[in-house]
Design goal:
Its cofactor is pyridoxal 5'-phosphate. By secondary structure, this protein is of the alpha/beta class. The chain is built from 17 helices and 15 strands. It binds pyridoxal-5'-phosphate (PLP). Pyridoxal-5'-phosphate binds next to helix 6.
Length: 445
């Protein structure tokens, strides 16, 4: 029996785990018991360095007492309050504080905030706002939503329809009237890129192809991850996002950036909007919004989009959309405490200071067995391995298990390893990540 298997193995049966090979996992479980700072502790007492900030969300590191205190206080003051035709001060307070760090700064005007419960809900909310906006400005024929191959936008029906990861789509029907841009992954031209790869800006012109195919007057919005995470870290080619913005403008199409993973300091800037200097019309967030402590998401909308919907007869609800947990008081309390930590510790820009050392360390893995690419931006890295013949994903999975046993949590998609550690990391953590992964790569066949 595996050392980590709990004695009462029957207790593993009831929990149907998400995005997990349930039977394989339950036969040899990996269970985490606690966390502090950069590290988890497994149930058998081993320290495991968190190379992934949980799931790209614990940007300020684990066990932040300030967040705990804020949550405790809020729970004992106002545990829940409805947000439909009712309000509570902390939701307004959090939205106002978010507006002070909103993507692109004050000039971008992305300071109207709609709260959700997760990244998937943020995506579906942004898509619906885009459709409502087009209709409100007399462009009701614009109902088509464009995503991108290999995109990940959560698991709602809207998100999987614009998403482009085949396993997440093949079993489920999708929204009619969606289409996809080509993805930007091009190892032949861009392998071992540091930061934005040189080649591929012209792939944005694929939107012109879709406009020619469907007619601009049918297209409401385009949604992309500025840096694609879940598919295995795809960094936009230089000039690509700028070109996408220009084409959207030319055709009256809204641009949505899905910043669920890039938001809140991941690239060394508060948002990818700030990193790339490209301003979309809507920005989806979640994860780092509350440091992962309480499930919550938020959509930043431009004033133009928001104001277009603030019309109609007195007393009319402007947007028939919202969740029971939109603006949940405990989520807001966690979020405000998180923003305070980010501000005091400079975490929304700390990644910029570390990015050089991070990049050098990750690129030192070049040349190790089976490595065919290393790509980095901010505090993100993707390490792509050659797949075993007829066994896509098996090699990276073996590396993942090996690393976990040696005390490092990594994330794998297919045969790509992704890193996105908490932004409190230090040089010694970077060195440990590279050392443990390097040894694992040498061991795994
Ligand atoms: C870009 C992006 N959008 C949306 C989501 C979905 O977020 P959630 O799992 O909170 O629904 C994710 C999750 O990883 C993501 O990376």
């Amino acid at each position: 029996m595996n050392a980590q298997t709990p004695t009462n193995s029957a207790s593993l049966e009831n929990y149907w785990m998400p995005f997990t090979a349930n039977r394989q996992f339950k036969a040899a479980p990996r269970l985490l018991a606690s966390a502090e700072g950069m590290n988890y502790t497994s149930i058998d007492g081993r320290t495991v360095l968190d190379g992934t900030a949980g799931l790209w969300c614990v940007n300020a590191g684990h066990g932040r007492k300030r967040i705990t205190a804020a949550v405790e206080k809020q729970l004992s003051t106002l545990d829940f309050a409805p947000s439909f035709q009712m309000g509570h001060p902390i939701a307004f307070d959090f939205a106002e504080k978010l507006s002070q760090v909103s993507p692109g700064g004050p000039e971008a005007g992305l300071d109207r905030v709609f709260f959700t419960g997760s990244g998937s809900e943020s995506v579906d909310t942004a898509l619906k706002i885009a459709l409502a906006y087009q209709r409100a400005i007399g462009q009701g024929t614009r109902t088509r939503l464009i995503g991108r191959e290999r995109g990940y936008h959560g698991v709602g029906f809207g998100g999987i329809s614009v998403g482009g990861i085949v396993s997440n789509r093949r079993v489920f029907p999708q929204l009619p009237g969606t289409d996809h841009l080509r993805h930007t992954h091009d190892l032949a031209r861009n392998a071992y890129a540091k930061g934005e790869p040189e080649h591929g800006a012209e792939l944005a012109d694929d939107l012109e192809r879709l406009v020619a195919l469907h007619g601009a007057e049918t297209i409401a919005a385009v949604i992309v991850e500025p840096v694609a995470g879940s598919t295995g870290v795809l960094i936009p080619p230089k000039g690509y996002l700028q070109r996408l913005r220009a084409i959207c403008d030319r055709h009256g199409i809204l641009l949505i950036f899905d910043e669920v993973i890039t938001g809140f300091g991941r690239l060394g800037t508060p948002f990818a909007v700030d990193y790339f200097g490209v301003v979309p019309d809507l920005v989806t967030t979640a994860k780092g919004l509350t440091n992962g402590a309480i499930p919550m998401g938020a959509v930043f909308a431009s004033r133009t989009v928001h104001d277009a919907l603030m019309h109609g007869p007195d007393g009319q609800i402007e947007l028939f959309h919202g969740y029971t947990y939109s603006g949940h008081p405990v989520g807001c309390a966690a979020g405000i405490a998180t923003l305070e930590i980010y501000r005091e510790e400079g975490l929304l820009t700390r990644g910029a200071e570390l990015a050089g050392a991070w990049q050098d360390a990750m690129h030192s893995l070049r040349g190790l067995p089976h490595v065919i690419d290393v790509r980095t931006i901010g505090i993100i890295a993707g390490i792509e391995l050659a797949s075993r013949p007829d066994a896509i994903g098996k090699r990276a999975y073996d590396v993942f298990v090996d690393c976990f046993e040696k005390g490092l949590l990594i994330r794998v998609t297919g045969d790509i390893i992704a890193f996105s550690p908490p932004l409190i990391l230090e040089q010694k953590d970077i060195e440990r990540i590279v050392a443990v992964l390097g040894e694992a790569l040498k061991r795994v066949a």
